[in-house]
Amino acid sequence: MTLAEYPDDMAFATAIGVRQETVLPPTEEGQVPDRLMEEARLFRRLGLSKPLISAMLVQAGRNGTTLEAEVLASGAVSHDIYYEALADILGLPFHPVLDPKEIEDLPGVDSQLVEPVMVRLRQPARAPITAIVPSAARLDDLRERLQASGEMRSRMIATTPTALRAALWQAGRGRRLRETVEQLFGTAPEASARITLWGQQGFYIGTALTLIAMLLLTQPGTVLLLLHIVLGLFFSATVVIRAVALFAKWWERYRPRPTLPLGRRPVYSVFVALYREAAVVPQLVATLDRLRWPASCLDIKLICEADDRETLDALAAMPLGPQYEVVEVPPGRPRTKPKALAYALGAARGDYLVIYDAEDRVDPMQLEEAWRTFTAGPAHIACLQAPLIITNARENWISALFAVEYAGLFRVLLPRLAAARMPMPLGGTSNHFRTAVLQEVGGWDPYNVTEDADLGLRLYRRGYRCGVISRPTYEEAPTQVRTWLGQRTRWFKGWLQTWLVLMRKPAQLVREMGLGPSLVFQVLVGGLILSSLAHPLILGYIGVIVWRLAVLEAATVGPLDLTLFALDFANIAGSYAVFIALGRIGMTQAERLAVGPRWLLTPLYWLLISQAAWRAVRELHSNPFFWNKTAHRPAQTKVQPEAMPAAAE
Q1: Handedness of CA 414, 418, 421, 427 (dihedral sign)
Q2: What average pLDDT score do residues 543-568 get?
Q3: What fold, for 195-649?
Q4: Is the pTM of this model over 0.85?
Q5: Partners of 303 in the beta sheet?
Q6: Residue 150: how many other CB atoms lie within 10 Å
Q7: Residue 580 in contact with residue 600, Cβ under 8 Å?
């Protein structure tokens, strides 16, 4: 019995083993949707088996996609073979590769990177022709139009979505790079770190520094006392805000994960920026392949520098599925991760978008939880931060204290800030966005080397909020002081950039954020920078007072010195204690055992933090956009799927 002999759609569905309730959405009469049946007939004509079509129909119904999307995503049919077959049905020449030099880079052509349908091609000796990507849904209509117009047929060719996008990326690379670098600065210059100090800002800061220098010459005792008090108060504020998060965490109750939303699965874009990451490419692809999300609804973009041949060759050697796309960013300044991400942002196909680093190992259900949380939450929640967990805490004292730091930040402090609707400086990976909102606020600043913190605060200024989810991303911390110091210097430099950007118009900042949130921002970012810079100075003052008390007569230490000594000692001891307590309460028992007694080296870790802060101040002046690349390696530790402690949920 041939396909045409089935009396109706339901008979065909029954014949290939598809139950009525699995094909969604049904028509009013309860029949299989016509669009799916037409596609099914097409695939039978192309020689696909009925069991395969049956399975793909179920997937299409469950995910709210098309049969064509599911079959192509499954890998059961080669893209080139499938689109060549459609071209043959239409009677069109098939071109599996397009010459980028022939692409007309017209206004709006980048929309074809999102949904490739057609592009115009210049021909040297003839009129322009149109390259189209045929689809099962439009096949019959297009065939009728081509049969009615021989002229139209003579000016068309067929190609694949992959070929069309590849040619477009190459054709518009120079123009797209200029737009990427200039977009945020051109549309919202006050939000860009391209200029480190604005005119008025530079004038006020220069005036203040000059005044302090003059007073130090004339009234050194008074000036040093005032600076000491101001730095001490900022230091205290950073300790207090973390202590509040710590005690609030002890009383936090378990929050169940949101339930599964009904309806179609949206397309989810996954962006990974890679630079000199050939060593971790196999681990990255294996991680992304394990994501529990329909392949037909995934848009994975691996974004590489065009001159990084080693990484590109490593990717070319991997068997990447049709959900993957390698995007090559043309060389240009600044050479930063946010520039690479911004270059690809306009081509994102997903309703939601997540950022990962090349070395990340992601919980396979993370996208699922983020989608549920977005769907169940209010529309002003524009970003969700997943926790980052360090897995190599046993390796040495640096990785152990890095693990303590991350546990306190991502599993205690950021959840409390989110619950209190306060500004959140995001982490550099595992940020889930509503794509439309991300594009609305201008995306990433190519000139800010901690683009994550900058973007989280810019979202807050625009009226959006950030939340958290619990499915983690696993990373390994640097284990060498040199590597750690380079990474942390870049972070501090970016936090300085972010603070300067937001402080260009302080009154406007307070109006947009509100007084309370703007004070939290000052403590989180400004207080962190100042306390890190002041840390060795305060330790030195404590040492001087202790020496005077121990060696000289106690009478040489006056009440003011004792008061400042008490404040400084409380700040230092409190900062160490809160740092350790935040980290340990966010950890599992196994993680605490992995850290062991190395938390006792917290004072040494903080001195390294201070060194990085001072290096960042110097580098902000000498090389503001330099991206100190952190070298990564394949993970040396296995992830243990152990539940977080109740306090960390």
Answers
A1: positive
A2: 79
A3: Spore Coat Polysaccharide Biosynthesis Protein SpsA; Chain A (3.90.550)
A4: yes
A5: 273, 327
A6: 9
A7: no
